[in-house]
Amino acid sequence: MLGIVLCGGQSSRMGSDKGLLLHEAKTWAQTAVEKLSVLQIPMALSINEQQLHEYAKVFPPESLIVDDNALDIKGPLLGLLSVHTKNPTKDIFLLACDLPLMDPNLLKELFSLHQQSKKYDVYIFTNDKQAEPLCGIYTAKALKKIITLQKQNKLIRHSMKFILSQLIVCEIAAHESQKICFRNFNAHADINGL
After folding, report:
1. Cβ distance 42 to 81 under 8 Å?
2. pLDDT digit string (tens) for 139-158?
3. Most C-beta atoms within 10 A of its C-beta, which of 3, 42, 119, 173?
4. Residues 93/39, Cβ–Cβ less than 8 Å
């Protein structure tokens, strides 16, 4: 398995790169890497081409996987499939960089579930019955299915929720006390009090 911190979004509402925002002297991307490191699996960061220069100042260049624009996909799915095409046999534990309140124990819980049961394509949490696709495990088998759909021109939407509808998904409902872990931050006003 490969841990991937997803940083390649446009951050248009935030106005600056969310992965490079600082919280307690670390970038959000560094915080996400630290949280995933509890799983003791190899890790990398998914970025877009425009981010390469700035991220290479913070992270080893070999840990950066740049979006493959030849895939002609948009959104988080582009980052996920770009990583998959470079690592086609690896299951991917995906964590978005803009979930700074994520509890590493939740990551361990998901990881443990995957280790115990291999019958699902994807392992994610739900929050008030809504899927949380940017913190989850995507199997190599599942990602291969999505690539096949794209090659057959059957990938009609690029949203992560559409992708989940095409796969066999194991869902864990987040408890009330865990819901804050999935709070993401899209604008500077959201960060006040963080």
Report:
1. no
2. 999 999 999 999 898 888 99
3. 3
4. yes
Rounded to 5 degrees, what angle do the CA atoms 46, 183, 48 make? 15
- Cα(115)–Cα(93) distance, integer angstroms: 12
What is the tens place of the pLDDT at every residue in 155-187? 889 999 999 999 999 999 999 999 999 987 655
Residue 47 has which token pair?
């970025």
Cβ atoms within 10 Å, residue 163: 27
Domains held by the chain: number: 1
Give the CATH number of the domain where residue 180 resides: 3.90.550.10
Question: Residue 89, class by beta-carbon neighbours within 10 Å (0-12 exposed, 13-18 middle, 19+ buried)?
Answer: exposed
Q: How many residues does the chain have?
A: 194
Q: Domain range for residue 65?
A: 2-191
Name the strands in the sheet holding 92-96, side by side, starting at the edge strand that comes first in the sequence. Answer: 64-66, 43-47, 2-6, 92-96, 130-138, 122-127, 169-173
What is the DSSP code string of 49-97? GGGHHHHTTTS-GGGEEE--GGG---SHHHHHHHHHHHSTT--EEEEET
Distant-in-sequence, close-in-space partners of 33: CB < 8 Å, separation ≥ 6: 3, 5, 43, 45, 59
